[in-house]
Amino acid sequence: MMVPYHVTMIPTFAMIAKLGGVDTYWGLIVPTLANAQAVFLMRQFIQGLPDELFEAARLDGCNEWQIFYRIVLPLLKPILATLGVFVFLWHWNDFLWPLIIGQSTDMRTLTVGIASLQQQNVPLNVVLSGSVIAFVPIFAAYLVGQRYFTEGVTASGIKG
């Protein structure tokens, strides 16, 4: 099983704090770049490819890197688009890590900013309009990658 995100959060914060990354953009972005789900999805997809593709490429004289770049990578486009949508949504909706790492108001992400509006005496229509504004980029990203996203979900075997 994969390790839950919350288990690794305290050691990650301690490491980022020692490196001077608290309240910086690189401290916000770099720790979340590696994603076990992405590796798992790509591995599952590549394992499902028929061995005949690789054998035919080897007979044509391709080495392992050429097989990857000429055969596997073009077939990975739907999975990469799906992962792009997943990772974008995960980073866009992430609340806890930006709340911990960004200690000044300049480093607040949109989700943390909307949550802080609810703690103050702000009218509900302002909070709701902020939520709608936060939804628009997510919806636009989905519309752009919708075709690849549905192909990637069906090809990788994700059940939803």
TrEMBL record:
Protein known as: Binding-protein-dependent transport system inner membrane component
All copies of domain ABC transmembrane type-1, residue ranges: 1-145
Transferase recorded as keyword: no
Entry-linked Pfam families: BPD_transp_1
PANTHER family xrefs: ABC TRANSPORTER PERMEASE PROTEIN MG189-RELATED (PTHR43744:SF12), ABC TRANSPORTER PERMEASE PROTEIN MG189-RELATED-RELATED (PTHR43744)
Location in the cell: Cell membrane
Gene Ontology BP terms: transmembrane transport
Family: Belongs to the binding-protein-dependent transport system permease family.
Alphabetized Gene3D superfamilies for the sequence: MetI-like (1.10.3720.10)
Entry's transmembrane regions: 67-90, 126-144
Entry-linked InterPro entries: MetI-like, MetI-like_sf
Membrane topology note: Multi-pass membrane protein
GO CC list: plasma membrane
